[in-house]
Design goal:
The complex is a heterodimer of chains A (63) and B (662).
Chain A lengths: L10 H52 L1
Chain B lengths: L3 H13 L2 H54 L4 H10 L2 H25 L6 H22 L6 H6 L5 H14 L17 H19 L9 H23 L9 H22 L9 H21 L6 H14 L1 H4 L1 H8 L9 H14 L4 H5 L2 H12 L15 H17 L9 H5 L3 H13 L3 H17 L5 H12 L5 H5 L9 E4 L5 E6 L4 H8 L5 H9 L6 H6 L2 E3 L3 E6 L10 H10 L2 H27 L5 H35 L7
The chains are: A mainly alpha (63), B mainly alpha (662).
């Protein structure tokens, strides 16, 4: 019985590098989704603060 | 028809038209590709961390900016805080950040576990080279080593069954092999070397100082511990000299150390169960490795360059050179008393070396890059060749390789004497007596005498208190393999001890051999040729001499060697500890008296047998009958002589002591 490694095609390297790229691409996609989540949180907070700010402004004008 | 392993190479080569060009070109590309892969992995890992950190920082600063904008709108701090709380902005951001961290960690793990593709073409080229050399060796030896082809192709001699047997043996001794967590993700350096060194003692104790479930031999324990520590020092030195990578993983070095210890322990156990010259720790470590290093020292003294990697390869070659003896196709045959089956054992050792180098996650290849594996394989395959060619004038890698191979051959070929004795005869000198009785039993066809001698010897082994149960099992198995001829190959080895070797300014090997103090007495007991082993020793070094030349020449000049003999009046005056144990027997009056008288009867019996044989051609019935009667009388006389000795012998066995070795 002969023991040998089976990957004889040099293109395997290109495949492996591509595989690294795929993993990273998946990360970027998911990270982007989480970034959008962050933006939504910030946006929600900003809107709430603006609403409160407007309310305070109107109250001051009406005084 | 190409072999299946070659077909793949040929197929690739056909695609690329030219095999050698293809292999060379791809090999270089492989190195580039490996580097590109590692760089890309590292780049993306770093980017994963920085982008994740960037996203978290951006989220935090966005949240902060939003709150500040609230203050800008004239809100009070408490109002801003209240809104932050009502919108759960902080908690949600924290959760999102946790998800980012988890995502980055998962990505890093996925990147890490994406393995670099194995260097398939390079490996196949290496395998091709190994197979070509093995095939040439097989062809050369087929005639002188009948059945070698079958033994070589026997799958029971493959690396997997071999390593399984070795592991089972190690486990039986109570040693479990596990990866050392403290070495994980660390490189091999002075610090991790110490970690590995510190655990060697524990492992070796389980194997060699273990009276319950392992072997018990303090001498072997000490010599193997010293060698293993030296091996680790040599790895470090080879790193410093730039021949081994400084990025060598500590885990890989530890795995190789474990593997080497397992291999040598297993080989030693197998060697103890037969009557071949030793192929265990005494031979491999106690003599061959030490002698190889001394020969390399001598080359250094002659101005030649020797690097740590050369010495390290010398150790590895020796640790593997006799693996074939322990592989099933040979072990089984030897245990069946088919002793010529050891011929060509090199080839089975080389096959195991090749397969160990090419197995997935090979610790051997992890430490030794392919250019060194080539040398190790060559050293294993050609270790018993008598050709030596030391170079002292030239320098360079090729010269260093040739010197190492010559040192390996010279060391192996000069281990011919006392400490090369089979384990049974070395560890239990009492077996010398049994062999002498077996000689008489064989010559007189006396089965009862033979069985009695073996039984008494087994009793001596069991009652000595010196051996562990596993030692006893191996030694008793060796007793079982004893026969009337056993003394022929073993006893002559007592003629000398460790020869001294030096390499002079012209690259000539000078070998000094001194006859041992007790040699004449021992061979005398068996009526053997006094210089049989010396002649064999000289022949193994490639020099042919007759008896009178040996007796009358103090310096024998071969093509590349000078052998200096110190025999007769110049023999050693002092005895080694082994010889002192033997002396105890050869000065035993009852035994010596039995042997001498039996020898006289043996010679007369042989003379009668020869006479009778000659008469077979010209039938003379009366004389034949008379001679046959006389022969029977001699056999009967020898049996009576033995019976008388046996009565005394019972007392003799009981009073044998087993003094501690040096």
């Amino acid at each position: 019985m002969i023991y040998k490694k089976t990957n004889t095609d040099p293109a395997k390297y290109r495949e492996a590098i591509h595989q690294l790229g795929v993993i990273y691409k998946k990360y970027q996609t998911n990270l982007e989704r989480l970034r959008q989540e962050q933006e939504k949180i910030i946006s929600r907070l900003t809107k709430a603060l603006e609403a409160k700010g407007m309310e305070v402004l109107r109250r001051d004008i009406n005084k | 028809m190409p072999k299946p392993e070659d077909a793949q190479i040929i197929q690739i080569a056909e695609k690329d038209n030219n095999l050698s060009e293809f292999l060379g070109e791809e090999s270089e590309n492989m190195a580039d590709n490996q580097e590109a892969f590692e760089k890309e992995k590292s780049r993306l890992s770093k980017k994963t961390v920085t982008e994740g950190q960037g996203a978290i920082a951006a989220g935090e600063s966005g949240l902060q900016a939003a709150q500040e904008s609230g203050l800008g709108l004239g809100l009070k701090k408490s109002e801003v805080s209240q809104i932050v709380s009502e919108t759960r902005a902080n908690q949600d951001m924290e959760k999102t950040n946790e998800l980012i961290v988890a995502l980055a960690e998962e990505t890093l793990a996925n990147l890490e576990k994406t393995d670099r593709p194995e260097t398939g073409v390079e490996t196949l080229a290496l395998e091709k080279s190994f197979l070509t050399k093995e095939a040439a060796y097989l062809e050369m030896k087929l005639e002188s080593a009948p059945g070698l082809n079958e033994r070589y192709e026997d799958e029971r001699g493959d690396v997997r069954p071999f390593l399984t047997q070795a592991s089972e043996y190690i486990n039986r001794c109570g040693l479990e092999r596990r990866a050392d967590e403290s070495l994980k993700n660390k490189v091999f350096n002075a610090e991790t070397k110490t970690v590995i060194k510190n655990r060697i003692g524990h492992d070796l104790k389980a194997l060699l100082l273990n009276k319950e479930s392992g072997r018990f031999n303090p001498e072997k324990y000490a010599v193997l511990k010293e060698q293993t520590e030296r091996f680790l020092d040599l790895i470090e030195q080879a790193q410093m000299e730039g021949n081994l990578a400084s990025s060598l993983k500590a885990e890989d070095a530890a795995k190789l150390i474990d593997r080497n210890i397992d291999l040598i322990a297993f080989q030693d156990r197998v060697a103890a169960e037969n009557m071949l010259g030793d192929h265990g720790i005494r031979h491999i470590v106690g003599f061959n490795i030490k002698k190889t290093e001394k020969i390399l020292d001598s080359l250094v003294n002659s101005g030649q360059e020797v690097k740590a990697i050369d010495r390290l390869m010398g150790h590895q070659i020796m640790l593997m050179h006799d693996l074939g003896y322990a592989s099933t196709p040979i072990r089984e045959e030897i245990n069946r008393k088919n002793f010529p089956a050891d011929k060509g054992h090199n080839l089975l050792s080389a096959k195991l070396t090749r397969q160990m180098a090419l197995e997935p996650d090979s610790p051997l290849s992890a430490v030794f890059p392919s250019q060194y594996m080539e040398i190790i394989h060559q050293g294993v395959l050609e270790h018993d060749d008598s050709q030596i060619n030391f170079q002292v004038k030239e320098k360079g890698e090729k010269v260093r390789r040739e010197n190492l191979i010559s040192a390996v051959r010279l060391a192996d070929n000069t281990h011919a004497f006392e400490d090369k004795l089979p384990e049974l005869l070395y560890a239990v000198p009492e077996s010398l007596k049994a062999m002498r009785i077996l000689k008489a039993a064989g010559e007189t066809n006396n089965h009862e005498m033979a069985e009695m001698a073996k039984k008494s010897l087994i009793g001596a082994i069991k009652n000595s208190g010196r051996y562990s149960p596993d030692d006893q099992d191996a030694l008793i198995q060796a007793v079982d393999s004893l026969n009337e001829q056993s003394y022929r190959f073993s006893v002559p080895r007592i003629c000398g001890n460790k020869p001294e070797i030096s390499i002079d300014q012209n690259g000539r090997a000078n070998i000094k051999v001194q006859e041992s103090a007790i040699h004449r007495e021992v061979v005398g007991i068996f009526g053997q040729d006094a210089h049989k082993q010396l002649k064999k020793f000289i022949k193994d070094l490639g020099v042919e001499l007759n008896e009178s030349e040996i007796l009358n020449t103090s310096k024998i000049e071969g093509k590349r060697v000078t052998i200096e003999l110190a025999i007769d009046d110049n023999k050693a005056q002092e005895s080694t500890s082994y010889q002192r144990r033997i002396e105890e027997m050869i000065t035993d009056k009852d035994f010596v008296s039995f042997s001498r008288k039996d020898l006289v009867l043996s010679r007369r019996q042989t003379a009668l047998e020869k006479r009778l044989e000659a008469l077979d051609e010209t039938p003379e019935p009366t004389i034949q009958t008379e001679l046959k009667k006389a022969l029977e009388r001699y056999k009967k006389l020898r049996h009576e002589l033995y019976k008388n000795y046996e009565k005394l012998g019972e007392k003799t066995y009981a009073r044998i002591s087993f003094p501690k070795a040096d």
